[in-house]
Amino acid sequence: MGKVPTKLVSWDDVVEWSRGLAIKIKESNYRPDVIIAVARGGFVPARLLCDFLNVENLISIQSQHWTEAAKAADKAIIKFAYELDLSGKKALLVDDIVDTGESLMLARDFIMKHWKPAELRIAALQWISPVAKLKPDYYYIEVTEWVWFQYPWTRLEDTFQFLKRMLSEESKYKAEWSYDEIVKKFYEWYEIDVGETYFKDAIKMLIEEGILELRNNKYYYKSS
Ligand code: AMP
């Protein structure tokens, strides 16, 4: 997998979008008793919605589909299928983005079957309308062209994965890299600036994982 269109999302964006989403939910007069965050992407938006909607009950379900940046697994799975009684409760299931919609559909079906809330609605900060198999009841932004949103809570893991992909491809043509050359190439590929701290931490991880080697201030990609 090569270059992917990517957009950087800031913490400020996340707060603004979550607040906007909360306003839409409030305007619809839905008052959830409990918020269910889809792990892991829904955690931060769900916590912010608790604040903006004045909801005290926050629980989670881990439905996993995309295991690394911009790379979907074949099938979504519920990772810890525990039992819970939500009868009589109005619930709100929250995720960051509806892309294929697979992980949310799986979570929704599991919750309705096993946790049995009185009502379940779905909210996401973003909804990629041309590809999603599910339209959330509430969304803040409709995305009409697919991109990978680089959210602040996956900044390190995405930078790591993106660097790994870029270096595995580019190292076919260039064996020896300086730090600045890596940063410049990353910018050419992804057109986002994740900042020096994340670059340095991601490069350190690549070395720890045995993917990069550092010798005399130069980096070498080690193909496996
Ligand atoms: P999906 O099941 O395809 O709707 O996506 C499951 C999860 O993967 C989402 O809740 C996000 O955490 C992550 N994800 C999927 N697509 C994107 C994207 N385009 N940008 C950022 N994160 C994504």
Structure, explained:
The chain is an alpha/beta fold. It folds into two domains: 6-150, 3-Layer(aba) Sandwich (Rossmann fold), CATH 3.40.50; 153-221, Orthogonal Bundle (Arc Repressor Mutant, subunit A). The protein contains six helices and eleven strands. A six-stranded mixed β-sheet has the order 4-3-2-5-6-7, sandwiched between helices. A three-stranded antiparallel β-sheet has the order 9-11-10. It has a two-stranded parallel ribbon with strand order 1-8. Strand 3 and strand 4 (71-78) form a beta hairpin. Helix 1 (11-27) crosses helix 2 (43-53). The chain is elongated and about 65 Å long. The chain binds adenosine monophosphate.
Short summary of the structure?
The chain is of the alpha/beta class.
Mean pLDDT: 95
**Poorly predicted runs:** none
Q: Which CATH first-tier class of the largest domain would you pick?
A: Alpha Beta
In this entry the ligands are: adenosine monophosphate
Q: List the secondary-structure elements in sequence, H or E.
A: EHEHEEEHEEEHEHHEE
Q: What are the key terms here?
A:
224 residues; alpha/beta; Rossmann fold; Arc Repressor Mutant, subunit A; 6-stranded mixed β-sheet; 3-stranded antiparallel β-sheet; 6 helices; 11 strands; binds adenosine monophosphate
